[in-house]
Predict the structure.
Amino acid sequence: MKNPMRLFHNVSLIASVALLLGFFTVATSWSAGAQTVDDPFAAALQTLNEKSFKKKAAAIEAMAEIGDPRATAALEALAAGHLFSRKSDNAIVIGSGIENGYALTDPVSGAGVGDVGKRDVKKITVNNRLRGQIRGILGRLALSSEDAAQRLTAAQNIIKSPSPGSLDLLRDARDRETVGKVRDVLETGIAIIELESDDTRLRLAAIQTLSGSTDREVKALLEQMFVTDDAGDFVEADADVRAAAQAAIDDINGRLSLLAVAENLLFGISLGSVLLLAAIGLAVTFGVMGVINMAHGEMIMLGAYTTFLVQEIFRTVAPPEAFGLYVVAAIPAAFLVAGAFGVLIERGCIRFLYGRPLETLLATWGISLILQQLVRTLFGANNREVANPQWLSGALELGGGVSITFSRIYIIFFCLAVVALLAAFIRYSRFGLNMRAVTQNRAMASSMGIKTGQVDALTFALGSGIAGIAGVALSQISNVSPNLGQNFIVDSFMVVVFGGVGSLWGTIVGAFGLGIVNKFLEPFSGAILGKVVVLIIIILFIQKRPRGLFALKGRAAEA
Amino acid sequence: MGPITSRLMGLESRRGWMLMLALGLIMLVLVPILNLLVPADSIFHVRTFWISILGKYLCFAILALALDLIWGYAGILSLGHGAFFGLGGYAMGMYMMRQIGDRSVYGNPDLPDFMVFLNWQELPWYWFGFDQFWFAALMVVLVPGLLAFVFGWLAFRSRITGVYFSIISQALVFAIMLAFFRNEMGFGGNNGLTDFKDILGFDLASRNTKVGLYAVSVIALALVYLICRGVVSSKLGRVLIAVRDAESRVRFLGYSVTNAKLFVFTLSAVLAGIAGALFVPQVGIINPGEFSPAKSIEIAIWVAVGGRGSLFGAIVGAFAVNGARTYFTGAAPEIWLFFLGGLFVLVTLFMPKGIVGLVQALREGKLADILPKRRGQLDG
């Protein structure tokens, strides 16, 4: 529903094509004249040739009365000045401007009837009154459309510029309306108009209706009642109505603030899930091996670039209808690519630095610089475009102007799935058992026959692979650039430090906690200052719990 | 102090002292003469451009010394030292900003250009006093020192060590960077402070001022070196080394690890602030980019390349890495990050004691000592 008008055109186009086919099968030899006899719409259309505006008005009304779907296109053309009379046979045609003339369409059949010069057609003139009439009729036609979405758009358009004239129209439509959502919009529209009514009872009823709204414009309308004129009198004279309006405003405010809380919560969870995806791999490697992988952000970046590559492959090789599945294919691909790089880094560098965590930190930072520059050399420094597939695009409307994109919602669930899988893997698999053993006591695990070197390498691969998966998710909501990882590195460290090293629960709580706190701080302090405040809070927080929320207890913590 | 202790502290012998003195005199006397007195067409002439570059390196060397003091001797790897460097730089920048007066683009004698641009009516309170050099100089020392004291107190008190401290200090510098990027902070936002005209009445564009600033930097580096040397060769220095190698043991022996660390961390921050204050008039700009975490991490690689735990090594490292940067960003910019990244990896893997350690090992024929050890042979 990006562009309701386009949808509208498409529908009318399809309708015209269907009609056209019908005509062709019934009788291909019908002339324009023959149509006017049997087709009341065509007859009414032909009357537009009359000079008198009064007769034109009658013709327009007649076209609307017939309720023919073709009327919409014809009336739109008329209001826009695109309806012409062909001089050769006085046929009414729709013309769209081309070079030195018009491309003509027959409004009855919907078929193209050739191009003509500018002088071969005469414009059918309308005045402002006719335009107003057409607008009303178009609104009415749309309101009685078969498609609920079209009716909704029409109703929303009408209440955007409420006028007492459309009151009956709205009431009619409301009585006929069967879809609840459209009916609500119509009710709101009626109430907005009735707010201006002279009847106190009607105004009170209208306020009653409007108090259920979450629309800021409705709230502004109600607040208008408390504006005082020059004499110091309220615009709304009746004290009862004012009291009702006040109550309604309070209602709306309450609902709006509730909505704001819900919005912060939802966006906080969304941010938290992104942080969690970015941090959980880090938590695994940090927890098991006690080393900080500064190149973790670059693993995320590699995952995002893998997604880009998979997308390009799908674009060239796969059939177009399968294109949307590239995201699914990218998940294992990103896991493997990032995981392979992880093994490479661990075997090639980190294993020589065990017991020297600060040096590991510096070495992995160096690796991150190299990877960034490598990607910049291969793919260029600019952002790479990763398109959202059809099934991930769009947004969920929450009312009150709040909406969240589907991709973010998917990421929340995706993130939970990844964490659940990881937790199950660590809890139930043989390798997970070894991992936990090494986390708790490396020396003891080694003496029990666990190959700690192997566990380290695979743990690093696992952590990096998850970072790669995070890259797939991030490619859907942020720019894919060589710096992608850098934006997350400090945040994901904070999550790990806040949550506590070596604890999956800590990471989950840390990520969602930080995400939500961040979003709740933003309205008060702005996005950047909110982040600063969160960082300060963390620095203060680890005063109380230096090892994070869910710290490992006992000797392992001191190692 | 016996020879073993001084070896342990990476200090120099008598010959080393002579070398240092000679180098210092060359930097302080010969280089300015080659610039000011030798005619421009002579091959011995040093261009003013190089004077400025060398001045910059000198400031970086002070910064490297500051980091080596805490990392090399007390085992505290701060990844946020750019914060103190930048704050010192901003304090000096604010002084020079106030010195511009009505020579700015908007010509407002009281407000810097960016404040006029933001429609501010008066100077924020924290800008007061910065028209006086003594006040700015005081702030160069006080602001980084105070921040380091508070931050260090919070961190060391709750025994945050190792990589935890590194990450938290990185978060600190990141938070400061984000804050300084905001226009509302009143420090020029994204663009920072620039367009300086003069310092203490000397025109910043003139060659004599540049050479003067360079000479001041040489003297400052020498002084900072002596201070650091004084600290590490004192009893406190020995406690610090003990803390680096076995923190818990030192604590159980009855020393206040927290106080020792706090003192050296605050001192280090003050030195970094001084480096920043000398840096800004020589490059003519200070902006939030100085607070980027990447820059702060880079300081660690200067120290690592030169040789951590050796004061002379820190200076060597700062000159070597920044010299390489100047060369690469001119000759092959796309190679620079590969080179820098490779440096991080190779130095940590193969040169744990840096250039100084390598030279020492070559001289003593003990190369095997410094090559990486396999796990299991480690003593940590």
